[in-house]
Amino acid sequence: MKSVALFIVSTAFAIADNGFLIKNDGFDTNKVIERVEKASLLSSELEKVVEEAALRGGVDALLALSIAKVESNFNPMAVSSSNALGIMQLKMDTAVKDIYETIYPKTALPPVEILFDPKENAKLGVAYLWLIQNKYLKDIEDKEKLEYCTIAAYNAGAGTVLRTFHEDKIEATKVINALSASEVLHKLMHDMQSEQGKRYVAKVLEAKKKYRKNFIAYKE
């Protein structure tokens, strides 16, 4: 196991499923090796970790799984070029900060190393999805439209998503509620001011389609 971990750590970078650069430099090598070994032991269970976090956190499990798949391909050690970390690719100064200010008020931010713990990362990633749906986009009435906007917001930010429909946030929500689900998706895919966000929505929806198919096959 140590030789496998050393090989992974010695690799300067790799490309994640979402095209972000994964870098392992800048960390204490021994600690990185220890984390990679731990991650390797959990690799066959990481999807279950995300699924359980979603069920506990009140978020659709297939959505959480699809986002984790696109964000990091379930690599607990993933580090993007913009310093997003772990399975759900979270940033301490944005997503985690928002989570702690809203859900854990007056609580100091955790150490950055916590984001390399798959269970903690999944819990925080699910919390951020919940925050998007229940705070930033809470006035979107239709479940399907809310999901499309949530996916886009996870990557591009809720503000970017709302500005796709109107410069004023309240008016934007009214426009979204007035459109059909297919029209909302079309605008996100074609009019959103984030090329990466447009690609991201397509990737997550495709991943969710596969997860749903596997789920139905399993149930049968």
Structural overview:
The termini are far apart. This protein has one domain: Lysozyme. The chain has a two-stranded antiparallel sheet. It has helices at residues 2-10, 29-42, 46-57, 61-72, 92-102, 118-136, 143-156, 158-163, 169-178, 181-190, 195-219, and strands at 13-15, 21-23. The model is unreliable at 1-27 (pLDDT under 50). The longest helix is centred in the last third of the chain and has 25 residues, at 195-219. It has eleven helices and two strands. Helix content is 65%, strand content 3%. With 220 residues, it is mostly helical.
Supply database-style keywords.
220 residues, Lysozyme, mainly alpha, disordered N terminus, 11 helices, two-stranded antiparallel sheet
- Strand tally, please? 2
What is the rounded distance between the termini?
37 Å
Low-confidence stretches: 1-27
User: Sheet bearing the most strands, described?
Assistant: 2 strands, antiparallel
Number of helices: 11
* CATH architecture identity: Orthogonal Bundle
- Rg on CA atoms, Å: 18 Å
Structural class by secondary-structure content: mainly alpha
What is the element string, with H for helices and E for strands?
HEEHHHHHHHHHH
Q: Name the helicity range.
A: 55-70%
CATH class designation: Mainly Alpha
CATH topology: Lysozyme
Write down the overall geometry: globular
- Supply the number of structural domains: 1
Placed side by side, the strands forming the largest sheet appear as 1-2
Task: Provide mean pLDDT, rounded.
Answer: 83
Strand content: under 5%
